[in-house]
Amino acid sequence: MKSLSLSLALLPLVLAAPAVHAAADPYADRVAKVLKATPLIDGHNDWPEALADKAKEGRWTMALDRLDPATFHTDIERLRAGGVGGQFWSVWVSADLPELQQVKDTLEQIDLAHSFARRYPSDFAFVTTAAELRAAHKAGRVASLLGVEGGGQIDGSLAVLRSYRQLGASYLTLTHARTIAWADSATDNPQHDGLTPFGEAVVHELNRLGMLVDLSHVSEGTMLDALRVSKAPVIFSHSSARAICNTPRNVSDAVLTQVAANGGVVMVNYAPQYVSEARRIWSAARSAEVARYNAPPFGGLYIGDPEGAKAALAAWEKANPEPVVTLAQVADHIDHIAKVAGVDHVGIGSDFDGVGALPQGLSGVQTYPALLAELMRRGWSDKDIAKLAGENVLRVMAAAEKVAAGMAGEPAGSGTVAALDGVKP
């Protein structure tokens, strides 16, 4: 944000507090005070995958303190400027890959995320518990956690899930973009009406391990099944309010009520197509135009003429400009979730470095103070801002740890998709 001082952003901050000028933003002192006491925790950032995709093998050795903001939403200087105290790094791989390949690629992503703290120990600390997260924040480091973003990444194996936990994974997103053998995705055709028995066993094992059950990307049926089965509070690591933007990637009011009863938290996503209904409709219309102009091998008005298709799409975009999405609209989702589920059940899950476009005013990890200031402008108290920023997530983490402690006497989960779901080999 424009009020950030570059000189302050370059200083090693004693605590992860935003470098903002009170003269430019009347809420700056309040934001800084909140983030000094409470770590700002983002539920979902795809920086590891973005580094792998854009930097290739250079990702292992490239300097991470200052990166091109046109290419990356994240770097160390901007994390400091944004007052980030804790970050769940997504270790995502494509759900279209064979599941065994997903396991290998996930292990590489996990190692890359671990390398942040190995290479920059004064800036990052790898943590797995609420107490460790608070300690890292107190020491002036960004607490780094891992989220495995897709049930396909366990390849139908509870042993693989346990291995991820041993490597420090703190949550599993039950599906990504595809329905898998044991759970329905929000963005694919349903096959199970939610979770299968094996899927329920996965939730149980997550509870036993102290890993969070993440319901972003899953169908509403899967959400409701997981909420029924889970003994611990669940999270939505990066989802918004369906009442405002009617995509199945968002959370309906009916589910929000269940989340409140469960004690969980919905961490609001910044992806424009999940924030703005107008932007969602525009995106669908644009996709239809792309197919109408050129859909090889047989369809499209300009099939065989890619330049003609490109010109036709440009003309359509000129006549149908992309709707503007703003920081204020993200704040609307936060307000709505707080109203329906309660202020104890909302957080932030930006999806930085996992989306191609972002709302105006939220261009990178340095902009969290601007969002908190907008909510203060709307009347949010410092206590409620602290809950949104990190206290709600810390409460959920601590509750999951308590549930795991109570299940410590149980044997490790066993069984396969074939055995538990009655699938014939």
Order of helices and strands: HHEHHEHEHEHEHEHEHEHHHHEHHH
Helix content: 40-55%
Q: Note the beta-strand portion.
A: 5-15%
Radius of gyration: 21 Å
Unreliable spans: 1-23
Could you characterize what this model shows?
It is a single chain. By secondary structure, the chain is α/β, with parallel strands linked by helices. It has helices at residues 6-10, 28-37, 47-55, 76-81, 99-119, 130-138, 158-166, 197-209, 220-229, 253-262, 272-275, 277-293, 306-319, 327-340, 368-377, 382-406, 417-421; strands spanning 40-45, 84-91, 124-126, 142-148, 169-173, 212-214, 235-236, 265-268, 346-348. Strands 1, 2, 3, 4, 5 and 6 form a 6-stranded parallel sheet that branches. The protein has a 3-stranded parallel sheet with strand order 7-8-9. Helix 2 runs parallel beside helix 16 (382-406), helix 9 (220-229) runs parallel beside helix 10 (253-262) and helix 14 crosses helix 15. The longest helix has 25 residues, at 382-406. The chain is globular and about 65 Å long. The N and C termini lie far apart (56 Å). Mean pLDDT is 94; it is low at 1-23.
Give a topology summary.
Blueprint: H1 6-10, H2 28-37, E1 40-45, H3 47-55, H4 76-81, E2 84-91, H5 99-119, E3 124-126, H6 130-138, E4 142-148, H7 158-166, E5 169-173, H8 197-209, E6 212-214, H9 220-229, E7 235-236, H10 253-262, E8 265-268, H11 272-275, H12 277-293, H13 306-319, H14 327-340, E9 346-348, H15 368-377, H16 382-406, H17 417-421
Parallel strand pairs: 1-2, 2-4, 3-4, 4-5, 5-6, 7-8, 8-9
